[in-house]
Amino acid sequence: MKAMILAAGRGERMRPLTDQRPKPLLEAGGKPLIIHQIERLRAAGFSELVINHAHLGGQIEQALGDGRALGVAIRYSPEGEGRALETGGGIHHALPLLGDGPFLVVNGDIWCDLDYRALRITPTDLAQIVLVDNPSHHPDGDFALQDGRVTDAGSPRLTFAGIGVYRPALFGACAPGAFPLAPLLRAAIAAGRCGGLHHRGHWLDIGTPERLQGLDTMLRKR
């Protein structure tokens, strides 16, 4: 299975840190956020990675190269400076690089200690997503989980972690361009074709300088 790291976001809430550097290259614990992701993916057996980029994306390619120095093979899906395609559009744009089978997608601006080998997608599902307990900045959550199946109703509500395994067919009716992922997930949920995993370990959405500092402090204490 291939894996994709979403790295095209502008990082508006991280400004001014992201004015001259793309968000995935901001550092915590002495290394860029995207390196943390690559190392965890490699440890789980993922050797073929796809990374999309837009804002200052050339810096990402320069920093990571073809991935050999990190023990992986990296291919890039550039979206153009200032032309990020949102999550759904970015994945759709990268499909030719991801192959015909299921693939893992992780947000480049999260930190999570999930072992990606725990993810499984059933033969009939279009997606399996990871859910986490609601952080303070997102108290209402996104979905519920019942017997390993994601639902749009019920409780307790959980937050989508920005991690999922998807089949290309999830994007089968999509046209090129910018669009979000959430409506596609909700359609799969409504059709009974979305599984879920509740991760109860560490997960951080690194959306502000304060959260980045908090992650840096946590990692340096370790």
UniProtKB/TrEMBL annotation:
Superkingdom per UniProt: Bacteria
Heme in keyword set: no
CDD domains (alphabetical): NTP_transferase_like_1
Organism of origin: Halochromatium glycolicum
An example molecular function term from Gene Ontology annotations: nucleotidyltransferase activity
Pfam families: NTP_transferase (PF00483)
Keyword field contains GTP-binding: no
Keywords: Nucleotidyltransferase, Transferase
InterPro entries the UniProt entry points to: GlmU-like, MurU, NTP_transferase_dom, Nucleotide-diphossugar_trans
Domain Nucleotidyl transferase: 2-119
Protein name: Mannose-1-phosphate guanylyltransferase
